[in-house]
Design brief:
The protein is mainly alpha-helical. It contains 3 helices and 2 strands. Strands 1-2 form a two-stranded antiparallel ribbon.
Amino acid sequence: MPQKTRREKERAAQRRAAGQIRTPVAPAPIELPAKESEMGVTITPPRPTTRRAPSTPMIPQSMGTEFNYSYVFADLRRIALLAVLCFGIMIVLAFVLKT
């Protein structure tokens, strides 16, 4: 995984300082009082399944689309250069070793 650039680190520090990023808060646990039957056996009724409303995302959607892929182009250029160099060496060796 690539490391963060200085610019990305500064932007993250500014967001933290501005309070734009909220830390997740776990809801309080729900406890139902246990009902006791006449024989002293505790039976808990099954909980009804309820759907929660979706929570707010940690990253605003406007910021989610800003990706920086400048490092990818440099890596692809380096890979292409090495591939051309390897093929060139193989072609030269094919002619030299043929004789």
